[in-house]
Amino acid sequence: MRYFSCSKCGSIHAQNYSCQFNKKDYSRWKTDKDKLRGTNRWRNKSLEIKEAANYLCEVCKAQGIYNYKNLEVHHIIKLRDDPTKLLDNDNLICLCKEHHIQSDNNEIKINYLKKLVAVREKN
């Protein structure tokens, strides 16, 4: 019997086997937040937030450091807690990778991040 590597699922099947893998089923492995972040609306909003922050980490800037490296846009209230806040300016902040990790680990308080966002939105 001959076998082949299936282009649909990546498994090894007998040559006469008809794989029932459906590409639509792949979506079950993606989380809802991954689907939301993959949109053009999110990419545009992310660029808008970085531009509003002058392409600087807002936590570093508050400490008097002008850091423009490894910038990411962070959701203060996590999407798993409230997916409606995906594009909410008051929930988004521009952070360097280090501060993003600290925020995710609750080492930087949510109230502090919200104050920084309020300063950005005021200007």
Question: What does this 3D model show about the protein?
Answer:
With 123 residues, the protein is an alpha+beta fold. It has five helices and four strands. It has a two-stranded antiparallel ribbon. The chain has a two-stranded antiparallel sheet with strand order 3-4. A hairpin with a 6-residue loop joins strand 1 and strand 2 (12-14). The longest helix is centred in the middle third of the chain and has 13 residues, at 40-52. It is elongated. Mean pLDDT is 84; it is low at 23-30.
Defining key terms:
about 120 residues; alpha+beta; two-stranded antiparallel sheet; two-stranded antiparallel ribbon; 5 helices
Summarize the structure.
With 123 residues, the protein is an alpha+beta fold.
Give the end-to-end Cα distance, rounded to a whole number of Å.
71 Å
Uncertain residue ranges: 23-30
Mass-distribution shape:
elongated
Secondary-structure-based class equals: alpha+beta
Radius of gyration, taken over Cα atoms and rounded to an integer in Å: 21 Å
Number of strands: 4
Helix/strand layout:
Layout: E1 3-5, E2 12-14, H1 32-37, H2 40-52, H3 58-62, E3 71-75, E4 92-96, H4 97-104, H5 110-122
Antiparallel strand pairs: 1-2, 3-4
